[in-house]
Please model this.
Amino acid sequence: MEEDQMETMIMERLEGLEAGSAVNIVTDLTGYFSAVKSSLKYAKEKGLPVIYITSTIPSHILTEQLKSEETPVDHIQFVDCISFMVGSSHEATENTLYIESPTMLEAIMLKTTLWLKKLKKDEVLVLLDSVNSLSMHNDEVLVTEFLHYFINSMRSRDVITVVLSVAEQTPEDVETLLKLVCDESIDVASEEEM
Model:
């Protein structure tokens, strides 16, 4: 799928989401970063602050990549679960909270809740990047339990939750859970909507 088509599809599908909705964006590796940018663009256009939970790429690298592609980052707060683990720069910044490892699932929930309290906004978008990375670092059962709790907790706070997953690399139980707890699934890997 072309990047413009993907962006249009994601933006249109996110447009109809109500507060407390959860959506799973299924992408392939080539469209992964485009899916991230489209989600962030949607949030920016809607005036929504973003809590970006990254267990895939360190937050400072993501920030550099987004800026190099002229994607605004001033509305993003990070929960960075990977910088410590990979020995990347993790100097304190005003928009990043660090967790020592993506295995610390409870800490992800706590840091996300902390950002929600600090933001003091009625509407927020949480972007979880990605279930595949969390599944690599954690037992599949733990990831499923965490996602079930996390998504429902965000729903109860009227937070829009966007969960990224990579097609054909998501554990089956995790994929099944996402279909159950997410209001919508956007498949931009195969051009078909799920």
Summary: The chain has one domain: 3-187. The domain at 3-187 is CATH 3.40.50.300 (Rossmann fold).
